[in-house]
Amino acid sequence: MKKHVSDRELIYVHMNQTDHFVLSYGIEFTEFISGIPHPIQNALLIRHKLKDSHFNMHTMLEYVDQEMIEKLVQEDINSFGDFCWIDFKEEEHLNLLSGQEIAEILYLGHIKEHLRIPFYGKLKNYYAYLSNDDGWFNKTYYKNWDLFFTMLGSTIAIKMNNQKEKSLLFRVKKKNTPAIPKEILNPFSDLMKEGIVISIEKAVRTRLTIEVPVWVIGDFFDMDEMYEEYEGLGGRKADGKLVFDRKTGEWQAFAAYSS
């Protein structure tokens, strides 16, 4: 398994709209937690290596509350190997789960496939988060797509703000780039179904704009193969771009099929 130098400046997204999940590369737990619109109250841990957690007798599984989750963002989640969890509102809701539902949740964490789409009325959950070497391979279920687009828009901005801006012939006052509104990312939803890379490392910065290129590269489960495909793009023209106007402070999206 490769550890890529550009991990933090590349995002791969493949959307499965029917089953409500996204396969991704380059989106880490810390960015996910920062980007979702509402804090997670509790997370039922299916596969993990956490030392500090609560225990639920009914499911015989551990869980973390909101305070623990806030501390968890400081941990090196990538070193855990498998890190799989599903959110829920209150511990008493765990006690309502049937044996069948608990079995489905355990299967989800073990195989990283669902027996049925993992949203449970008893838990009132919005996510199921399944990762292997967090940020390298993530499979995340979203109850609705607005949650995903909000998180993605935030994550792109976080990566851009962490990127060291190359020296230019002109001075540009350093300002944090705002999150991309979910509505701006919607034009890329059809391309995401095919599998895209969003390359922060290849962003073109000028005095007036920042342009982030987007390429369609296909459906990948093996992220080493995905990365090799990305490296082989060469001078291929981007299939779209995200453009930030420094003067207005606004984002625009340009997808090839919409031109």
Structural summary, described in words:
By secondary structure, this protein is α+β, with helices and mostly antiparallel strands. It folds into 2 domains: 28-134, no CATH class; 168-258, no CATH class. It is built from 8 helices and 13 strands. Strands 1, 2, 3, 4, 5, 6, 7, 8, 9, 10, 11, 12 and 13 form a 13-stranded antiparallel sheet that branches. Helix 1 packs across helix 5 (145-162). It is globular, with a radius of gyration of 19 Å. 37% of the residues are buried. This is Oxalate:formate antiporter. It comes from Lederbergia wuyishanensis.
Q: SS-based structural class?
A: alpha+beta
Q: H/E order of the elements?
A: EEHEEEHEHHEEHHHEEEHEE
- What proportion strand? 25-35%
Low-confidence stretches: none
Number of strands: 13
CA gyration radius, whole angstroms: 19 Å
Whole-number total of structural domains: 2
Number of helices: 8
The helicity comes to 25-40%
Q: What is the molecular shape?
A: globular
- Distance separating the two termini: 38 Å
Query: Mean pLDDT score, rounded?
Result: 91
Largest β sheet strand count, sense and barrel closure: 13 strands, antiparallel
Protein name: Oxalate:formate antiporter
